[in-house]
């Protein structure tokens, strides 16, 4: 999955397969509140990882530091074998320039809990904006791709509508199409169904399932939809107080959680 | 006071002043808008020096009285820079524009801060560059917030243009002073109260034109948010024909 | 009488035609304390108009060194003269603003009157004054008004300083009235309804319920207008008020040193307006905290 030429830019070791995402000793605190505590996490290319955990446990922050929405206090993150926040100068790792961060970040996309669609642009313009302005593709080409993506999420006829004219579920499907448009290798999904009315969740999960079935995108999802996690995820990661306390195949963890906090968390979530 | 109207000749004299006033206003406005954008964005820059510099600019030009600023630009700055006698018009435009920029920068800054954080985050997630973020996402959303206070600010600048009469530019206020001091040599002596009431009314009309223009612009900008039809819409045929209006299930989410 | 315009958060809409809660003109007696304030302000004003300003003479005789680009020594030599001039500018500011606070309240109440013949002309007057230059208003008051012989003389012929104070008072009074209006509009509708439910009369409703809630909201805006009035006060120069601009301009033409003198008054201005703007922002933040 990861392009071979990126290896030269900063592989850390002699691993055969370069992970899509590699996090090493990542720390992040907001004041006294430690949200990431020496985090280690590797995600393989094409792998689908679902992160669960109580609210406030910092699981969203994992996605946000990969997307560079928050800067970690220390530690390293690699995307497709290239350091995100660092550049290799000789033998040393130096803090990366904005230009470097932008280059590496181009391989990452994110879908937000509250969609964050641009209210002044139509659905189609929302999707075509980054291909045109960030990737320099032609307008016709980008619009063509955008229409195909709208087809994929079942919203072609809404291409000219602004977000204000769409329902919550439709907005989120447009938002997913928008982040797919730049074809990132890693897609981050931050509680993408939490802000939706229950009857609208199904359509959005359907779209996620389609992306998962294609199997070429690495997906990291923070969600409370346990049924979906069981069905789609390759790996389930239980996160609490800044640390991974348990991980494994979803079926196994959901059926037989080992850690006591996983047990109580699952009991609370599955209760409703 | 029989009648408030002046003679056509007197109005012609005031009209010369109106033209100067409007010219000064347009140039100062253009300069002010540019400075507002530049310094408003710099105030939010991640670079500490840019931020500090912009803060100094804003505090300086909002802190000094505009008449003092004008005199300083007209009489002190040329000596400091040793540039002889520059055009008074240019110096007046610089002073008024810089003054407007100080207030405008704060308006721009506030409007950008009013754009929700999620919008900034989405631009990061889409990896847009700084310029494209501002141009395509942030400014279009800040504009409806910027326009109303900018309309008021422009009226303040119109009022500020009257100060240039004190440094010898023949604007509307200066034309009024010419008529007042020359009234004894006129065939039809001018009434001083009537004269100034007329001048005030002209300024009032100019202000109403500014205010009307801004409201019109606001309406256009806000309309773009609600309905999107016509030339910007793309052809979606190939699937189902696009419905003319939002379908029934489009009831807005959260 | 539970009718009112106040919808929280939004800009105050124009008052509905029938508004029993609105104050009649007798409403200047809103509270004893505010009445006392008004009297004090007007007394201070009278003192300033009677004894202030006038006999300023700028007598420093120092000449600039022609060999330097910027003669600091020369500039500092004129600081005492500058301070004397600044005092006049201060008098105009304080006097004008005291007047503006009172005029503003009157205009705000007139704008809320149930009588259209009061409400509409007031609204027009405010809009007119706010959108025309203070300088031309000064010219009108100084050169035009004294010639309208239909008006009794004490009401139309004033000294330079008094003219400046009145012009500032009317100009900023119009700005203040809009601030009051917004402040009154920001008092939630439920407060008026509660006052009605408690069967309070209009005077008690205003003095005990509405104004105590509205005035803290208005204070930062009034502070801004005070600073703005201070920045406009040097305009009195155009009608020979001996404030800072008069000082700089006459001294500059005598000593041929406009650079130092205009720089001096610019710096002097900043020395006052920057700290006041800073204090004002702190006040604003404190009020903001108290409200949340």
Describe the structure.
The complex is a heterotrimer of chains A (272), B (254) and C (292). Chain A is built from ten helices and twelve strands. With 272 residues, chain A is of the alpha/beta class. Chain A has a six-stranded mixed β-sheet with strand order 8-9-10-3-11-12, sandwiched between helices. Chain A has a four-stranded antiparallel β-sheet with strand order 2-1-4-5. In chain B, helix 1 runs antiparallel to helix 6, helix 2 packs across helix 4 and helix 7 packs antiparallel against helix 8. Chain C is mainly alpha-helical and 292 residues long. Helices cover 67% and strands 0% of the residues of chain C. Chain C contains ten helices and no strands. The chains are: A alpha/beta (272), B mainly alpha (254), C mainly alpha (292). At the A-B interface, strand 8, helix 4, helix 5 and helix 6 of A face helix 5, helix 6 and helix 8 of B.
What descriptors fit this protein?
heterotrimer, A: 272 residues, Rossmann fold, globular, disordered N terminus, B: mainly alpha, MetI-like fold
Q: TL;DR of this structure?
A:
With 272 residues, chain A is an alpha/beta fold.
Which CATH architecture of chain A? 3-Layer(aba) Sandwich
CATH architecture descriptor text of chain B:
Orthogonal Bundle
- C-alpha termini separation of chain A: 38 Å
Q: Which class of secondary structure composition applies to the elements of chain A?
A: alpha/beta
| CATH level-four homologous superfamily name of chain B | MetI-like
Query: How confident is the prediction overall: mean pLDDT of chain B?
Result: 85
Q: How many domains of chain A, as an integer?
A: 1
State the end-to-end CA separation of chain B. 64 Å
SSE pattern of chain A: HEEEHEEEEHEHHHEHEHEEHH
Q: What strand order characterises the main sheet of chain A? A: 8-9-10-3-11-12
Low-confidence stretches of chain B: 238-254
Average of pLDDT of chain A: 88
Pair of chains with the largest interface and how many residues each contributes: A-B, 50 and 39 residues
The value of Rg of chain A in angstroms is 19 Å
Give the beta-strand count of chain A. Answer: 12
- Tally of strands of chain B: 0
Q: What's the order of the H and E elements of chain B?
A: HHHHHHHH
* Helix percentage range of chain A: 25-40%
Named CATH topology of chain A: Rossmann fold
Number of helices of chain A: 10
- Helix fraction of chain B, binned, reads over 70%
